[in-house]
């Protein structure tokens, strides 16, 4: 089997949602922002689905698929399989393209954000609430994120920003996460643009991102009356003969 990276399509969304939900079940931010007793997996899946629909048009949302390699085809069983197996989705990455903070949002982007909000309102109605999301904490995190990014994003052209990456747990440590990162960092390298990502899980992500060329840059403390969630921000350094080009 080989791994193929492609832009997310509508039919990929259910598998992508499942991978994200499994991968983030023990994530410190997730445990802080959701009330475990009230958590609704279905409501959460609907919310991630809405985000994916938005991402297909506005983000750089990728999936990693496990597809039969040429060697697999050549192995040739005596009888051809009755049904052709669909490629399995084994990873997902949600990247946002750079946007210069000084430039106003385009009408298209404003309209797309409005559609996303509308879908989330419909989800609230359909599921009679936020499915355990602590809305106050969500906004605490949003505020911390915006303060931190204002402080550390010093490139006026904006950053490629990876805010979710997840690989199916039985497929980790095989280079899939790296492929989902390099599809964008390679593009950024060609354009001379910078990349950034955030994660609330320090172990093992600090090591994993370090291996991918990212360096820890800032820790945000999202504090809800003493209940704190720490989210780390990482910069990607475009290495040139082992020397980081941007700092
Ligand atoms: C983070 C994640 C996407 C990495 O995916 P992955 O496919 O396992 O990563 P890769 O196999 O491409 O590994 C990249 C590098 O990290 C290293 N690595 C992978 N897992 C590691 C671990 N647990 N500890 C230390 N290093 C690790 C690999 O050896 C590789 O380094 P190398 O290429 O120099 O050998 C995956 O662990 C995951 O889904 N985690 C849960 C969700 C999450 O925390 N996402 C990030 C926050 S948005």
UniProtKB/TrEMBL annotation:
Pfam families: Acetyltransf_7. Transmembrane segments: none annotated. It comes from the Eukaryota. SUPFAM superfamilies: Acyl-CoA N-acyltransferases (Nat) (SSF55729). One of its GO terms (molecular function) is acyltransferase activity, transferring groups other than amino-acyl groups. Residues 97-241 form the N-acetyltransferase domain. This is N-acetyltransferase domain-containing protein. It comes from Helicocarpus griseus UAMH5409.
